[in-house]
Here is the input.
Amino acid sequence: MKTSLFIISSLLLAGYLNAAELMPFQKFTISVDEKYIDQPLHFLVPEDHNKKSLPLIVLLHGGGGGTKPEHPLNYLKTDEEKWGGLLNRGEAVVVAPYMMKSEQPSIAWNNDGIVEEYLANVILEAHKRFNIDPERVILMGWSMGGYGAYHIAQSYPDRFAAVIAGAGGWRASDWRNSRTGGIPLILIHGEADAVYKKRPHYTDIQEALNGYDSMKKAGVNVHLLTTPGAGHSPSEQVKKVHEAWDLVKKRKRDLTRIFLSTPIVKIDKKDRGWISIDKLSPGKIMIEEQRQVTGKRGAWKDWDFSEEEFNAFKLQSFQKKIEGAWVDAVYAGKNRFDIKTKNIAGITVRMNDKMVNFAEPIVIFVNDHKVFDEKVIPDPKLAEAWFKKRKDLGMKYDGKVSLVVKGEG
Here is the structure.
């Protein structure tokens, strides 16, 4: 199946293209939000994209502070040795956005709150232009984009059917957030990512190994794909990228279960799926933190230490208590919601006619106590307001119940 490359941008990007590989292309302007008018989006699109609904792959590029706007195109080249060999199968529409401006550009995809809003607009723009299934949006990131994928798997898991994190890393985390929807979280990493005097331990294999162990303990649907001898470049792990895609390409988003914790997710971004935290109570929760305990990490221009010290580098995960709260909410079917909370004084539960039968009472249990058993009258204005806030075509809720929470899980 043939594919074409489309570029959505307000910048003149024609000079960045290799016409033999990537023609034809078109230039558009981002239209869903003027705030992002200068952000280039690169699209790889099957020619028959309008004949059937396709999944969307949101591809977060690597790089750092000096990364140029054309850099995402490197991931879309359609020769088999690149990711485009996978993407060129015509099984999905692919968008590779350029990173948002950031005070710390090396972690631009980890900018909490800002990156989630930006990606919501990226996805909505893709929906506007192409025939995309809103329940089959896959996030894929590499290196800096891999860091972003680890982050977004916790901060924005309700938007994606699956997350693929390649050659990335993480620090403080509450992996229970990634239980949301049971999303598959695929970790890809080369076992020789760090090499003395060539590449520091910025994205060491231990990031993936520790993350995998922590996620397993947290009940996350996680898969680990490693390649012996492979370094940091995605071109060395194309087979694992193909394997990851085959694991998730038929996956649909499932919002039956929602987990949301704060402050891993900032309290001013306290919405997830059909649940919102309205008010907190004082208290602490447990999170996981990863820290260097031995050896030398290295730096691009600083190798004033021995190879032995470099090879002694070790990351370790630690449990840590912080001020925070969590909610673990399950829609059990047949108009019933079961919710557990910690350090929460108020929540809102949302619903629509795809979830519940509004002609029957809605039953809500919080911390094993029935707190609501009444009919809910849907209001289209609620769905409009929620879409305006979340910009998610698959998440329009016209019914809601706000509750005061007493007791905790």
Remarks:
- The longest helix spans residues 114-129.
- Helices lie at 19-22, 83-87, 114-129, 144-155, 205-217, 238-248, 307-311, 380-390.
- The CA atoms of residues 112 and 161 lie 20 Å apart.
- The longest strand covers residues 132-142.
